[in-house]
Amino acid sequence: MNRAQDGGLRFFSELSEHQISADEFFNVVLLDSLARNFGLKNVLISYFDPQGRFLSWTHRNGVLADHEGHPYRSCLPEDVVRQTLYREAVQDNLTYYNVTPDCTIPPG
To answer: How far apart are CA 76 and CA 51, in angstroms?
Structure first.
């Protein structure tokens, strides 16, 4: 097994051990696991609303919500990768926008 495969198995194994919500997952827990298993030290997770508007990002120094002087605003018009990924995800229904959560409580 090569290093990338080994890192991938450890990554999924580590994350499967956590019983966490999406809010808890997309934070330092994920960043730490990416660094430990793949050597990715400069990861940034960006958050957008269903219309593709930037909301915030998470990185090693924490969460930085959008505001008038946010660094992402200066590169937003040139962020072709984000624009393409968003457009294709919506086109291919790879979003959670069309999902209704199951709020039923199982019998207990």
So the answer is: 14
